[in-house]
């Protein structure tokens, strides 16, 4: 049996038994105290139960017989007499002896207790006579007793060795140097430890303050005692921390068994490799990750690993490997669960996500494989083709993610087809004292956890030229590699107080995951022991902070999360920053980004279109493009796809064998836009900086630091399909109010609606819309963005609902936000629908439906 | 209240004891941009003079930063920003009304802190219809005092942004 469980059992039982003697003695004096009998019964019952669970048959049988007698007493079927008490005490003594034996040898001592048990049973059965008045209850007892009869007899039969063991006892007990477990451990309420921890945190802060006061003043009479206080505080702090820390292995105990059972059920060969079991974690954190860990290992073994036959076919070793690895990294604990299975089929995830309505086709098309794979964390998502008894029923990874996030951790999944899947959990030490470097940037102090710091580099002012740039991004040659540099003040959008000054450059080289980068700060101060306090609710979504702390002088400073900062600049934040520096206060910059498809339109111009409007990218061999009169078409899926060049005057390059085409779809119609080359997909804030008068071009935006024309997809669809305009007449002249602060989307939505024949009134803010409505303007439908300055969509909807009761037009929320509660929140605010920007077809049908409904209502009223 | 019956003290004193027990009718009043606002007295932890506040770059603009309250970290909310009012002029400094919400402390930065106002006998009026839309969710209602109105803040909604 597991050593740890055994120790726990011993500690608990000893503790309970020490009280029991007392209780039984009191019982003798107060034989009618029902509560007391019940309490004694429970204690023995617990021991019996645990014995059965961990297979201690001898001990279990004694406990069971004692429990039976107590049970009868509890039910008033047996009187509490000194004789019966003595017998019970005998039973309890024997239980204690067995426990002591178990503790010293680690084995259950072999005693012949058949006599004792027989006497206890006799006493119990003697109750039957007295108990004529409660016959119903008796029938229960024997039923319960039957299985135990086997327990009682079997050890008695096996144990041919007679009452030899108890003689060992005095010898062992006589050894005073050996403390028993009950002496060594006490149970302490976690709350007590928590409050101790808080107090120590306060003490550390005060200590820091005192140390700072006497620093540099060796003459001070306080210097020596403070030094001593310093040492004691450090020891105390470590001690208290230790009381709460447990090795992560404690949460792994059950996994080998789980994997073994799984292997049998699924017929796979699975090896479980666990490393870093000694990595210590705060107890509360440990409790919180137990279940998610179990789930992840189960998932890897069940879904991750292929069947033995599939593995053989793929040329892999038959035995699949599930690996668990835990280690500390920069104030966090990282736990990796990886397998060498088939990896996640991103294509299947995509299909599934679209089927389940988690994604639209268009969004799915624009997602990277990594993003797609991470969709397995979406609520209600399960890729297993059938529900298996092993890995749950559609609840799974989303629960893992929520549980980890609840304790402030993150989950990241990487999958490589045919090679395996890795899930990486990063759990912050929400409660810890860490060593951190205090730096200054933009006039503010920040702490950087020492564990993430690799080295400090100082570049003298005259050596500044050694910092080189690649497309405005700074890098530094550090020995044999190129270190990317980030100005912390720019990253934090603070003012650079030393702008333009020729001064030394302080670079803090930090490690984030596998990468290193340099943070440029203006000052580097001391390393300090700081108490990590969790960031408040309103700040916890900011990825660049790991926590806050109070310095020795009482100042609050933020602790930076290096990995969070790294993640920010990975997403092209450096390019965004340069845009910010241009002094453009347009708030759209700060907010949403749009994924844009950037292409070379020929004629040396770069153009872009929001990827969400693109339905497919195709490459057709040049010879398949046919001409019918003026128009170019290509046979595509048993249909003809009309093709249009961006610039009608330019002809397709005859030298190219392959013609890239961007396909747009509208209803059941599609058209292909002929482009020279697909260049890039960029995710950036989309701001139309210069409206265009050219047909088909919405305006010019800066994408990837280049002026880029953003095309109006609608225009080209119309061009390709001359019938389009006839549709206009079909629609009634409903008035639609469009509220959006983004010029781009305003134009896009307006064009779409006007093309479909609606009358459109545009407002660039909810405040304007309020004014328009207050002025008595009437609308049949209102389409509003959510995220807007001054008054957001929710506020607008609430205002509107309260203002207009009878004449209310339905509201549609049109947003590029996403999130599970978005829809419900929008509905609560009074929106009839909530759509994402911008699936034109879905959008138009929704508009049509709501206008139609309203039309009918109006007629009936 | 039952207490007044058991007390032999003059009725005036009994009333003042009742007043003290009457938390539900008491509000800590403060002003922001000339408007009198109030929060329930039992949600207020304490009131502080201007404090040094650590800025939290990249946080939402309504978050003024963090302050150290005897070792406890408190998130400061700029009430003027939250209510979309102009910033405080000149070198005037904000007072702190520290409220407790969901086991965290938040400091509401206000212009001036007034007295605790007892509104017993008055009924809370719903926010008037013409109140600005962004004020509505964070307003529980309005009490009519003798000379002015006090707008009661819904702390839950105020801190949800």
From TrEMBL, chain A:
Domain Histidine kinase: 226-431
Entry annotated with the keyword Phosphoprotein: yes
SUPFAM superfamilies named among the record's database cross-references: ATPase domain of HSP90 chaperone/DNA topoisomerase II/histidine kinase, CheW-like, CheY-like, Histidine-containing phosphotransfer domain, HPT domain, Homodimeric domain of signal transducing histidine kinase
GO biological processes: chemotaxis
A single Gene Ontology CC term: cytoplasm
Keywords recorded for this protein, A-Z: Kinase, Phosphoprotein, Transferase
Modified positions (4-aspartylphosphate) in chain numbering: 785
EC number(s) stated in the UniProt entry for this protein: 2.7.13.3
GO molecular function terms listed in the Swiss-Prot or TrEMBL record: phosphorelay sensor kinase activity
Top-level division of the source organism's lineage: Bacteria
Response regulatory domain mapped to chain residues: 735-852
Catalysed reaction, written as an equation: ATP + protein L-histidine = ADP + protein N-phospho-L-histidine
UniProt domain HPt: residue ranges: 1-102
Cited PROSITE patterns: CHEW (PS50851), HIS_KIN (PS50109), HPT (PS50894), RESPONSE_REGULATORY (PS50110)
Uppermost EC category: transferase
Modification Phosphohistidine occurs at: 45
CheW-like domain boundaries: 433-571, 593-722
InterPro entries: Bact_Chemotaxis_CheA (IPR051315), CheA-like_dim (IPR004105), CheA-like_homodim_sf (IPR037006), CheW-like_dom_sf (IPR036061), CheW-lke_dom (IPR002545), CheY-like_superfamily (IPR011006), HATPase_C_sf (IPR036890), HATPase_dom (IPR003594)
A UniProt-annotated Pfam family: Hpt
Region Disordered, residue ranges: 158-178
Protein name (Swiss-Prot/TrEMBL): histidine kinase
Annotated organism of origin: Symmachiella macrocystis
Lineage start: Bacteria, Pseudomonadati, Planctomycetota, Planctomycetia, Planctomycetales
From TrEMBL, chain B:
Any Pfam family: CheW
Domain annotation CheW-like: ranges: 24-161
Record-linked Gene3D superfamilies: CheA-289, Domain 4 (2.40.50.180), SH3 Domains (2.30.30.40)
Organism domain of life: Bacteria
GO cellular component: cytosol
PROSITE patterns on file: CHEW
SUPFAM superfamilies, per database record: CheW-like
SMART domains to which the protein is assigned, alphabetical: CheW
Record GO biological process: chemotaxis; signal transduction
Family matches, as PANTHER family: CHEMOTAXIS PROTEIN CHEW, CHEMOTAXIS SENSOR HISTIDINE KINASE-RELATED
Protein name: Chemotaxis protein CheW
Naturally occurring in which organism (per UniProt): Symmachiella macrocystis
């Amino acid at each position: 049996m597991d050593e740890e469980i055994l120790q726990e059992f011993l500690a608990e039982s000893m503790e309970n038994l020490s009280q029991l003697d007392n209780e039984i003695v009191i019982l003798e004096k107060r034989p009618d105290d029902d509560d007391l009998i019940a309490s004694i019964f429970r204690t023995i019952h617990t021991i019996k139960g645990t014995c059965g669970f961990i297979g201690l048959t001898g001990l279990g049988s004694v406990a069971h017989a004692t429990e039976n007698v107590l049970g009868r007493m509890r039910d008033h079927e047996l009187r509490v007499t000194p004789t019966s008490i003595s017998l019970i005490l005998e039973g309890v003594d024997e239980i204690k002896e067995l426990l002591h034996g178990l503790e010293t040898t680690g084995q259950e001592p072999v005693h012949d207790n058949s006599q004792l048990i027989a006497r206890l049973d006799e006493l119990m059965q003697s109750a039957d006579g007295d108990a004529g008045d409660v016959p119903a209850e008796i029938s229960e007892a024997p039923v319960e007793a039957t299985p135990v009869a086997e327990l009682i007899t079997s050890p008695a039969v096996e144990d041919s060795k007679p009452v030899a063991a108890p003689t060992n006892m005095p010898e062992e007990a006589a050894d005073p140097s050996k403390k028993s477990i009950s002496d060594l451990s006490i149970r302490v309420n976690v709350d007590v430890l928590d409050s101790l921890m808080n107090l120590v945190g306060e003490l550390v802060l005060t200590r820091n303050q005192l140390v700072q006061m006497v620093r540099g003043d060796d003459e001070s009479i306080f210097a020596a005692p403070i030094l001593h206080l310093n040492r004691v505080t450090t020891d105390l702090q470590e001690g208290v921390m230790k009381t709460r820390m447990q090795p992560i292995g404690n949460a792994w105990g059950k996994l080998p068994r789980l994997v073994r059972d799984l292997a049998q059920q699924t017929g796979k060969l699975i090896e479980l490799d666990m490393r870093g079991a000694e990595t210590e974690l705060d107890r509360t954190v440990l409790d919180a990750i137990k279940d998610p860990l179990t789930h992840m290992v189960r998932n890897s073994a069940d879904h991750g690993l292929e069947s033995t036959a599939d593995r053989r076919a793929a040329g892999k070793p038959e035995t699949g490997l599930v690996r668990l690895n835990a280690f500390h990294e920069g104030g966090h604990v990282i736990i990796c669960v990886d397998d060498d299975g088939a990896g996640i089929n991103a294509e299947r995830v995509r299909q599934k996500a679209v089927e389940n309505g988690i994604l639209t086709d268009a969004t799915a098309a624009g997602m990277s494989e990594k993003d797609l794979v991470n969709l397995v964390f979406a609520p209600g998502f399960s890729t297993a083709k059938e529900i298996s008894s092993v890995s749950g029923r559609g609840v799974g990874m989303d629960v893992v993610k929520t549980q980890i996030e609840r304790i402030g951790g993150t989950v990241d999944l990487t999958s490589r087809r045919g090679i395996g899947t890795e899930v990486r959990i990063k759990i912050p030490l929400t409660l810890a004292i860490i060593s951190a470097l205090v730096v200054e940037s933009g006039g503010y102090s920040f702490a950087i956890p020492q564990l993430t710091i690799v080295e400090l580099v100082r570049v003298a002012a005259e050596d500044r030229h050694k910092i080189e740039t690649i497309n405005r991004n700074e890098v530094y040659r550090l020995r044999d590699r190129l270190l990317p540099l980030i100005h912390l003040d720019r990253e934090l959008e603070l003012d650079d107080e030393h702008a333009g000054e020729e001064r030394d450059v302080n670079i803090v080289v930090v490690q984030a995951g596998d990468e290193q980068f340099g943070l440029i700060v203006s000052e580097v101060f001391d390393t300090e022991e700081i108490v990590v306090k969790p960031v408040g609710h309103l700040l916890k979504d900011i990825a660049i902070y790991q926590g806050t702390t109070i310095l020795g002088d009482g100042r609050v400073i933020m602790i930076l999360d290096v990995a969070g900062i790294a993640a920010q600049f990975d997403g092209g934040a450096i390019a965004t920053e340069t845009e910010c520096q241009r002094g453009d206060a347009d708030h759209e910059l700060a907010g949403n980004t749009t994924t844009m498809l950037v292409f070379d339109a020929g004629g040396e111009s770069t153009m872009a279109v929001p990827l969400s409007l693109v339905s497919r990218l195709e490459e057709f061999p040049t010879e398949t493009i046919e001409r019918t009169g003026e128009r170019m078409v290509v046979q595509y899926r048993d249909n003809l796809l009309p093709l249009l060049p961006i610039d009608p005057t330019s002809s397709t390059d005859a030298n190219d064998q392959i013609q890239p085409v961007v396909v747009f779809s509208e209803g059941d119609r599609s058209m292909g836009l002929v482009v020279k080359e697909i260049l890039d997909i960029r995710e950036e804030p989309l701001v139309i900086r210069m409206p265009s008068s050219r047909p088909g071009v919405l305006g010019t935006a800066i994408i990837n630091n280049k002026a880029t024309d953003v095309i109006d997809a609608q225009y080209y669809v119309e061009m390709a399909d001359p019938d389009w305009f006839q549709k206009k007449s079909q629609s009634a002249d409903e008035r639609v109010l469009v509220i959006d602060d983004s010029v781009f989307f305003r134009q896009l939505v307006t064009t779409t609606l006007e093309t479909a024949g609606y009358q459109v009134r545009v407002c660039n803010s909810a405040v304007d819309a309020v004014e328009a409505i207050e002025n008595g303007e009437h609308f049949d439908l209102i389409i509003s963005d959510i995220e807007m300055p001054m008054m957001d969509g929710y506020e607008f909807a609430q205002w509107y609902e309260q203002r207009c009761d009878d004449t209310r037009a339905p509201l549609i929320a049109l947003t590029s936000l996403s999130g599970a509660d978005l829809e419900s929140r929008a509905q609560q605010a009074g929106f009839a629908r909530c759509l994402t920007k911008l699936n034109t077809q879905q959008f138009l049908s929704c508009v049509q439906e709501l206008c139609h409904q309203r039309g009918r209502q109006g007629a009936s009223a | 209240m039952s207490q007044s019956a058991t007390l032999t003290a003059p009725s005036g004193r009994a009333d003042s004891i009742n007043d003290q027990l009457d938390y539900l009718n008491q509000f800590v009043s403060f002003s922001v941009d000339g408007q009198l606002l109030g929060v329930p007295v039992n949600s207020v932890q304490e009131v502080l003079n201007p404090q040094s506040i650590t800025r939290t770059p990249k946080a939402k603009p309504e978050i003024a930063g963090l302050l150290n309250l005897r070792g406890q970290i408190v998130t400061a909310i700029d009430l003027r920003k939250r209510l979309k009012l102009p910033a405080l002029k000149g070198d005037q400094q904000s007072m702190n009304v520290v409220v407790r919400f969901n086991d965290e402390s938040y400091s509401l930065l206000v212009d001036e802190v007034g007295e605790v106002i007892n509104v017993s006998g008055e009924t809370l009026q719903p926010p008037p219809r013409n109140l600005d839309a962004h004020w509505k969710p964070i307003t529980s209602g309005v009490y009519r005092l003798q000379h002015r109105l006090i707008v009661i803040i819904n702390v839950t909604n105020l801190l949800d942004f």
